[in-house]
Amino acid sequence: PFTFTNTTAKSFSTSLSGAAFSAAPISGNTQIFEVKANDNWTVTFDTPLSNLRLYCRFLRTNVVEFDQPFAILSSDGTFLNTSGNQLETTTFSNGIIEFTNPITTLSLTYLSGDITPVAFTFGLPAALSIDNEAKINNKTFLYPNPANDIIKLSGLFKTENYSIFNILGTKVNKGIISVNDEIDIQNLPKGIYFLKLDNGNIFKFMKD
Q1: DSSP characters for the chain?
Q2: Which residue from 72, 108, 157, 207 has the least number of CB within 10 angstroms?
Q3: What region, left, alpha or beta, does residue 92 occupy, with left being phi > 0 and alpha being psi -120 to 50 degrees?
Q4: Is the pTM here over 0.90, yes or no?
Q5: C-alpha angle with apex 191: 155 to 158, nearest 5 degrees?
Q6: Contact criterion met (CB below 8 Å) for 42 and 96
């Protein structure tokens, strides 16, 4: 559940599949929201959401800024994020962005561009179910995040097998990590990944 402020959102059904949504397509018709492009809207969720996705159907040339950093998961080649939280689109722009921090309140500020309506809806990765989230040990932390060359786990008290998955759920690395060890991620392309330990703990991180 969530509430919008500073906008009057209409709704209609559309398809969120195809190349622009290839990172996480949704089959069939999906209910999405239509707002004015120059509305500086805010949405507030009842509970914090990790890995919040925004499925965008801009269909216009716009520059908007969010108050949270995000990564572009997929688009039709017309999405650009130059500052970490600013989305630039051109005509007939569609795609998915994902926010890197848990979200309770998200705000958008219109900066420039066409002011005719745009449309979007929210989503969450199926891979991160509530059950998996509940398994995370709050005393163990992955750092640095975002990371460039290596990642570490603080609070690890025994040797663990690990696997690293990309945003599509493909395993891209595996190994064993001991207390005070580090994991080399230099060869991973930039993007969002999930580190899963054999004990069930899952950690999300971003490779710069």
Answers
A1: -EEEESS--EEEEEEE-SGGGTTS-EEEEEEEEEEETT---EEEEEEEETT-EEEEE--S-EEEEESS-EEEEEESS--EESSSSEEEE-TT-EEEEEESS-EEEEEEEEEEE--SEEEEEEE--TTS-HHHHHT--TT-EEESSSBSSEEEEET--S-EEEEEEETTS-EEEEEEE-TT-EEE-TTSPSEEEEEEETTS-EEEEEE-
A2: 157
A3: left
A4: no
A5: 20
A6: no
Is-contact 41 35, C-beta < 8 A? yes
Which residues are 176's β-sheet partners?
161
Q: Give the pLDDT confidence of 66-91 residue by residue, as tens digits.
A: 999 999 999 998 899 988 999 999 88
* Tokens 């716009």 -> residue: 62
**Which residues contact residue 112 at a Cβ distance below 8 angstroms, ignoring those fewer than 6 apart?**
62, 63
Model confidence at 139, in pLDDT bands (50, 70, 90)? low
Q: How far apart are CA 93 and CA 134, in angstroms?
A: 36
Q: Would you say the C-alpha torsion 106, 112, 114, 115 has a positive or negative sign?
A: positive
